[in-house]
Amino acid sequence: MNGADVPAPLEVDPARRIFGLETEFGLHLDAPGSRSVTPEEVAGHLFHSVVQWGRSSNVFLPNASRLYIDVGAHPEYATAECDNLTDLIASDKAGERIVHDLIAGAERRLAAAGIDGTIYLYKNNTDSAGNSYGCHENYLVRRRADFKAFASTLLPFFVTRQIVTGAGCITRTPGGAHYSFSPRADHMWEGMSSATTRSRPMINTRDEPHANAELYRRMHVIVGDSTMAEPTALLKMGSTDLLLRLMEARVWLPELTLAREMQAIRDVAHDVSGKATVELADGRFLTATEVQQEYLDAVRAHLGGVIEQTAEVDTILDLWQRGIDAVRRQDFSLIDTEIDWAIKHRLVSRYQERLACGLDDARLARLEMAFHDVSPDRGVFYALQAQGLAKTVVTTEQVEQAVTTAPQSTRARLRGQFVTAALEAGRDFTVDWVHLKITGPESRVVLLKDPFRNVDERVDVLLESMRGPATPLN
């Protein structure tokens, strides 16, 4: 078998899915009294150590995730392929630690260049100038001819999902300030498109499955917020997965097509009372809670059938219902230790009362930014978590393991083994989502088109070749 050969695809459990999360981090240097420093220069110092070992600012790590500098000098971390939500959340949280661990070295290099400052990394979606950067969700689905129609069926869900999974934000307008469910909603301009920055759609339709294109397609969702609380990530990814399971089984979903999607997403975002209605294509008007309840009821109707009733599914459905009820009843205490927008709303409200100020007060703006600081020492969210005011899904040990170790039940295991072995052997190599390649005079490459496969004899040979004399791939 040579590197171009591909093993037969595995028989995959229909309930098993490949997930991924991509997070762009806000980057800020506070250096009063120093010369002006561009974001690109700060990002260069931040990634200096990455470039030294990886020979690039775009690398795959030993935990099989991807780390790089995106447009606008934003550090971006993309989790490795995960086939369960526990691994996904642990890998996502590991990404926060990995990018944060670059700060100390970057500050030392800046100091050596005469710039005495502090670097901040924020897991949020907007900066002080109003620019937006994203959190992208990836769901591997079976390839089908009607993919665009299939994906568009979920748009009403994504428009209203923010009431249960939004990050929350203080929205400032010329007429004053108010609290909103989602900072990302105002930056969406289209339902579906192959673009990501020019039109910024809710679902990106560019066909890049990073897998066998005859079998799979990747649903790339860019409407969601970057969130800090682990239960929010569980509900965001888990509820979407449950609806995809119904759709892949060709189960009927409620007809909730919206008349004006962009108007709807903004109307929902800016009314935390939950009273705002969205117009459906059939002329009905529903609130976001009513739309979400219909989707939740559709999932519940197929428990024990299309959807196996597990402890994790029960947890997702319970939080989903409490999220809907919290908005419907205006009782945010139902979710204010689990859902980002409610956790932040409680924090902002308490500080606003203590300071006797309006929502447009600059001190609240600083508090909001500090909430998203990924530093475990100074970040406000992590202070709340330490006080038991923000619940977790994974353990500290699981996150620590995910910093260095790839998920073990998917293709990521093979990539992680390869990167680790190549670095230990001092070999030149290149990696992407589907290729493992030893470069140089004895170039060797393995193509991994099945993201569910976590063992491969060709990779075993490749790893062995780095431990001793060259071994032919045959």
Give structural notes.
- The protein is of the alpha+beta class and 474 residues long.
- It has a domain at 1-15 and 410-474.
- It has 16 helices and 17 strands.
- It has helices spanning 39-46, 48-54, 85-100, 103-112, 147-152, 155-165, 230-248, 261-269, 288-300, 311-329, 340-355, 362-371, 380-386, 396-404, 412-425, 457-465, and strands spanning 19-24, 26-30, 58-60, 66-70, 74-78, 118-122, 135-142, 169-173, 176-180, 190-193, 201-204, 216-221, 277-279, 285-287, 429-431, 435-438, 444-447.
- An eight-stranded mixed beta sheet has the order 3-4-5-1-7-12-11-10.
- Strand 16 and strand 17 (444-447) form a beta hairpin.
- Helix 3 (85-100) packs across helix 14 (396-404), helix 6 crosses helix 9 and helix 11 runs antiparallel to helix 12 (362-371).
- The longest helix is centred in the middle third of the chain and has 19 residues, at 230-248.
- Mean pLDDT is 93; it is low at 470-474.
